[in-house]
Amino acid sequence: xxxxxxxxxxxxxxxxxxLFVPFLGNVHLFDWDEINFAEASREMLASGNYAIxxxxxxxxxxKPPFFFWLQALSMKVFGVNEFAARFPNALCxxxxxxxxxxxxxxLFNVNFGLIWVLAYIGSLLPFFYFKSGIIDPWxxxxxxxxxxxxxxxxxxxxxxLLQIVASSLFLGFAVLTKGPVAILIVGLCYxxxxxxxxxxxxPPLKHLFLYFAVVLSIGGIWFFALLLNGNYGIISEFIxxxxxxxxxxxxxxxxxxxxxxxxxxxxxxxxxxxxxxxxKKDYTITLLQQSFHYFMLLLxxxxxxxxSIVKTKIVHYSSxxxxxxxxxAAISLYKLFYSEKKIFSxxxxxxxxxxxxxxxxLTAVPFIEILKPFLMAQNIPSDEFGKEAFxxxxxxxxxxxxxxxxxxxxIFFFLYYRKRKISKAVLLLFFASLLSTSLAMLLIAPKVxxxxxxxxxxxxxxxxxxxxxxxxxxxxxxxxxxxxxxKPGLNPPHYSEDWALNGDTNIPVYCVVKINxxxxxxxxxxxxEKLYEKNGxxxxxxxx
Length: 544
Prior knowledge:
By secondary structure, the protein is mainly alpha-helical. Helices cover about 65% and strands about 5% of the residues. The strands form 2 sheets. The chain has a 4-stranded mixed sheet with strand order 3-4-6-5, sandwiched between helices. β1 and β2 form a beta hairpin.
């Protein structure tokens, strides 16, 4: 039996690689986060400085370096491109699939492990993030594994010492990936666990000391290195940045308190719908299973409430919830498959409502060119930049709708088979969701990207072999650095936007402005000579 399980693990890992790796370079990186992180990694290679994260060859204090090391290594192997920037997360996806299966198998059995894997990769955003170039997949995996080993420790696993070391090791890597917020999340989960258990099962002091020693030795190594080298400013700015994220809409993204509730409900479809009944304690499973379910409840609600309170609202801030949410869905599906439990009518209704809505959107997007006159007559988009970007000429063939059509077919099959063969109905639904997400990323994303940033990236790439400064004026972007591949050593000590526009630079200066602010910058900087306008952007060169 053991060799069969090992074979399943091997096949799952290979399947995940084939699922996540192909077409990673199919579309340009997206501003901000994807390009931001890829640029920091590119600058590590270009400058040879792997200790201090940099953007525009100046210290970047928002994130520690672990993920950038992974990306830099990938770029060393595959070159500086989109594929290399996204490859680490594809690898993370394969490890995540393996972890879900192993943990599910240990908690329940092989079938549960497979169901959990299906619930995760068959949901929209959980699948999507493994084909992206953002930090969160690795951060989330480290946190999840830290909590898993903490659960094993607290439930008196035979190798308790090993479990406490493993938990602290993964937490340390989470800190080295995204910062002390990792300690906050795990600390809140464990504190609430202790509170509700009336402070029973408190680890001995020697284990607590060992735990924090490992976390600090792994997670704190970068911070200690900066201190030893006198880089106090980077650490203070890093701390201030974390505080700003909580208190202000620092990253330029705000939203209502319920923002992440909506993101998880729609973004984790269809797993989110099946998970709803298990967002509370479940007394029908074994005590050990209940204990892990309890930890997943703590993780889910801590992350969801914490990032609902935080003023900065970004979709991937709640992505750590994907682990507990798909676990709850797996319990729900497991009971539907292997017990007499019936599916709730509200579950069926929500799957039909949300699923068909998503299907309609995916099916309708390729007909955007046909809908353009109608939408523009309704003043959609309403801003000048949006209107000009919307005029971008994109060749939609109609085949891009196939993902939406497949999702629709999957939902109708689910509705048809739910009373006849629920396992068949669920499998068809999740596979349809997986296929539709894959096809949308393959066929729709490359057609949508030109509307938002295509003209700008085309301009940046045209300057790749020219020694010059490129300045985006009036909007925040990292694309000019990555796609023009700015070289180290160009920035003098007194470098600033004002100096580049008004001083003697000795090399050409180009500026990119969104069309709604073109007149403003032309009046403010009369030395700018307009080159051309395209798809909502105006491109300038500074006169000598």
